Amino acid sequence: MQWNEGTEGSTARARLHGDVAERPDVGGESDLRRRRTPGFPLFKLRGMDAQTHSDAAADPELTGQHGVQREPHATGPTTAAGARTAGGTRPDLTGGTRPDLAGGTLPDFSLGGTLTVGRLGFGTGGLVGPGYWGPRHADPARSLAVLRRAVDRGVTLIDTADNYGPDVAEELVARALHPYPDGLVIATKGGVVRTGPDVWHVAGRPEDLRAMCDASLRRLKTDTIDLYQLHRLDPDVPMAEQLGTLVELQQAGKIRHIGLDSIGAAELTRARELAPIASVQNRYNVLDRASEDVLELCERTGTAFLPWFPLGHGTLVGRPGGSGGPKGRSGASASASASASATDALTTIAAAHGATTGQIALAWLLHHSPALLPTPGTGSPDHLDENLAAERIALTEAELTWLDGLGTVAG
Ligand SMILES: NC(=O)c1ccc[n+]([C@@H]2O[C@H](COP(=O)([O-])OP(=O)(O)OC[C@H]3O[C@@H](n4cnc5c(N)ncnc54)[C@H](OP(=O)(O)O)[C@@H]3O)[C@@H](O)[C@H]2O)c1
């Protein structure tokens, strides 16, 4: 596609017993192709134990707050998820096929029942500076090029937020991609005000949300935001007021679909009684499974689950300093030996596929649930290409089972 604006053209089950994982044979023939039949979302039923949702707030995007900010909304007690069983009727989460996109074999997702998106999106967190403050690259052309490359490579879902920068990420999205090509879905967020690097507070009063939405519309140069996510519930404002405001914005045609962020299963259940919720965005990755109960609810209700930190904010690509894992389902930090087991699994499986550990982490998300729509963030075109190639990796049952087991290491 030609872009007009800007300076660029465009073991069998390897359970972890305590901290020690058995290593299954990996790299065998995958049965993925058989399971990837049109209209049958690749979907693995998992007998998961009950768990609680916790620690949804510990991320660099919204941590390091000082003084002015309130704590991120407590996710609150969640209903025990109970065992995942094969008993429930699962909605058809897929839309049409998308054979042209990178790899192109995964069924698409129907967001809110009206917008068809590919399963692997792009997050703009990598286009802003440390503490989500300012631009990542001094030369905006570098960020514009990454955004355009993502779309040229078939990405149909871009995740951003008004406070990334602030304003910076949304402005980059508009500058790089407006006028938006048909089929490109832009998701942004409001409800959080960032006043410095890693300094932020929630702001969920109706007048706040209305003003933020209008500002995002202006920055994104659009009349309607495809997916508007409440970045955090404001604990000082009734949920009904916050969601009521979003419903009003929806009725006014300013937003197409409503999403929630860092939310527990009980809250999501309540929220669904108040508004049509098209998506959830919680921290989640192969080693950080605190939101498994929320994912289960999303699957049952046809709600998209955008996992933030799909790469553990770098941890899963071997980059020190990421804060996304290893974690157990409880969100507790894993022990050193559990980390070693996780590293063993990821590197072993990666080697079997000639892939990177990050690609395996993304492939696992894509296999794990048809409701998962990862939006890994990067400011690098090479990393972008690498991440998108994960869609073509077909993990074997044994590999999936081994990776599934990693999420049970702590609790
Ligand atoms: N709702 C929320 O509260 C929330 C919180 C955090 C994030 N998010 C959203 O979720 C998206 C993803 O989260 P995230 O970007 O923070 O974390 P992430 O995707 O888990 O990891 C991003 C980190 O991994 C590195 N990386 C990415 N691809 C790589 C590759 N192929 N090889 C080596 N390193 C690679 C990036 O550095 P390089 O740029 O150098 O590649 C960056 O440091 C964000 O962009 C944002 O849209 C939402």
Automatic annotation (TrEMBL):
It comes from the Bacteria. This is NADP-dependent oxidoreductase domain-containing protein. Transmembrane segments: none annotated. Residues 74-91 have a biased composition (Low complexity). Residues 16-32 have a biased composition (Basic and acidic residues). Residues 1-10 have a biased composition (Polar residues). Keywords: Oxidoreductase. The keyword DNA-binding does not apply. Residues 1-36, 64-105 are annotated as: Disordered. Residues 119-405 form the NADP-dependent oxidoreductase domain. The keyword Cell membrane does not apply. It holds the Pfam family Aldo_ket_red. InterPro entries: Aldo-Keto_reductase, NAD(P)_OxRdtase_dom_sf, NADP_OxRdtase_dom.
